[in-house]
Write a sequence for this structure.
C-alpha cells in the first residue's frame, strides 16, 4: 500500500525558541502509523531542549502519554511510538501547551474473493492429486476443510476426499492453498483405495465449492461462494516425457516466445519451480512464463531479445503433471519401475536460435 501522508499545520509564538509556521506530519507505512514527524523552524540542536517537555502525544481523551523515542536531525524532531498508532483512532499532540487533534483513517476494506482454482480444466482425471486455490487477499489458516466442500451430481457432500494435513500448505503470503486428494485413495492397493475407491469417477459430474464464511487475515469473509464444476475422466497413467514435447523456436533478435507444448495438462507450480532456460555458459535466461490451453502449453517470453546461439531447457525430474507423475515415473508406481533411484536429476533439451 502506498504511504499515506497527513499534514497538519501549527502556529506558535513562543518567543526566542520557535518562530513562524510549524508542521506536524503523520507517516503511515504498511497500513500502520510508524512515526510522527514534528518539524519546527528556528530550533537549534545547541538549545538542548528536553523533547519530552516540549511535546506529548496521547489518545484523545486519554490520561497516559504514549511512550516512544525522540530524535533530532536537520532541525526536524522525530517521534517514533513504541507501538504503531491504530487506525480509526484520534490522537492529541500537545506542543508548547497547544493541542492539535489528528485522526488516523480506517483502512478501506477491499472485497476478498477466490480468484481461481487450478487445474483450470473442467475434465479431471480419476487419480488427480491436488487442487490449488487462489485468493485475492491473505487468508486465515486453520480448519480449512470446514470451508471446502465437494458435491457429486446428486448434491451429496462427499467426505474423506481431501487429506486433513496437520500443516496447511499455504504459500508465503497466504494467498494460495494447496489441498491434496487423500494419497491413500489415489494409490491403488492401499486401504483407503480398496475400501472407498478413487475420489473421482469417469463421466461423473462434481462441484468443488469454497464457502464464503472463510475469513481473511483482517477479519473479512469472502464476498461470495466460489464454485468449480468439472467431470471425472479416465485416470492419467502416463508420465511426462520430454521427448514427446513439441518445441516452437523463437526468431533471432526478437522477443518472440519459446513455446513448449507438453501434450497434456501439467502442474502449473512445477512449471515455475522446475523448468529454466539457460545458455551454454549456464546462465539463466530471465523472462516471464505464461500457461495456456488448460496448462498444457508454456510460453516463455525473454526479458531481452534472443541472441544467436545455443540454449538449453533444463528440467528437474520432479516436474509433474496434475496427478503427480513426474519425469522419473508414475506417482502410483511399482517397485523398481522408476527411471532413476534418485529424484531431482536435471534433464536437458538443446535448441539453437538462428532463424531471422
Amino acid at each position: 500500500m502506498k504511504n499515506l501522508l497527513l499534514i497538519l499545520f501549527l502556529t506558535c509564538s513562543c518567543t526566542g525558541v520557535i518562530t513562524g509556521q510549524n508542521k506536524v506530519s503523520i507517516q503511515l507505512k504498511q497500513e500502520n502509523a510508524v512515526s510522527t514527524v514534528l518539524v519546527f523552524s528556528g530550533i537549534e540542536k545547541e538549545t538542548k531542549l528536553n523533547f519530552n517537555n516540549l511535546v506529548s502525544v496521547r489518545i484523545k481523551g486519554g490520561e497516559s502519554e504514549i511512550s516512544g523515542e525522540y530524535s533530532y536531525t536537520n532541525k526536524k524532531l522525530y517521534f517514533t511510538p513504541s507501538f504503531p498508532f491504530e487506525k480509526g483512532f484520534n490522537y492529541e499532540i500537545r506542543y508548547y501547551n497547544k493541542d492539535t487533534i489528528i485522526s488516523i483513517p480506517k483502512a478501506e476494506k477491499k472485497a476478498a474473493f477466490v480468484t481461481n482454482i487450478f487445474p483450470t480444466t473442467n475434465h479431471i482425471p480419476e487419480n488427480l492429486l491436488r487442487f490449488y486455490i487462489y485468493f485475492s487477499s491473505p487468508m486465515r489458516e486453520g480448519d480449512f476443510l470446514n470451508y471446502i466442500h465437494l458435491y457429486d451430481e446428486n448434491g451429496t457432500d462427499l467426505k474423506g476426499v481431501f487429506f486433513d494435513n496437520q500443516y496447511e500448505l499455504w504459500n508465503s503470503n497466504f494467498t494460495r492453498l494447496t489441498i491434496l486428494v487423500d494419497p491413500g485413495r489415489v494409490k491403488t492397493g492401499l486401504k483407503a483405495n480398496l475400501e472407498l475407491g478413487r475420489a473421482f469417477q469417469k463421466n461423473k459430474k462434481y462441484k468443488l465449492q469454497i464457502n464464503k464464511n472463510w475469513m481473511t487475515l483482517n477479519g473479512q469473509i469472502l464476498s461470495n461462494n466460489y464454485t468449480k464444476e468439472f467431470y471425472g475422466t479416465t485416470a492419467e497413467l502416463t508420465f511426462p516425457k520430454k521427448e514427446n514435447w513439441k518445441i516452437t523456436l523463437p526468431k533471432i533478435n526478437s522477443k518472440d516466445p519459446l513455446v513448449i507444448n507438453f501434450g497434456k495438462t501439467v502442474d502449473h507450480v512445477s512449471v515455475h519451480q522446475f523448468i529454466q532456460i539457460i545458455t551454454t555458459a549456464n546462465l539463466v535466461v530471465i523472462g516471464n512464463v505464461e500457461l495456456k490451453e488448460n496448462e498444457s502449453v508454456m510460453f516463455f517470453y525473454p526479458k531481452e531479445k534472443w541472441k544467436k546461439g545455443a540454449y538449453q531447457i533444463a528440467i528437474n525430474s520432479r516436474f509433474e503433471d496434475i496427478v503427480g507423475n513426474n519425469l522419473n515415473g508414475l506417482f502410483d508406481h511399482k517397485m523398481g519401475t522408476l527411471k532413476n533411484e534418485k529424484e531431482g536429476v536435471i534433464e536437458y533439451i538443446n535448441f539453437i536460435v538462428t532463424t531471422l
In short: Helices lie at 51-54, 183-186, 191-196, 268-274. The domain at 114-233 is CATH 2.60.40.1220 (Immunoglobulin-like). Residues 83 and 323 are 48 Å apart (CA to CA). DSSP finds four helices and 24 strands in the chain.
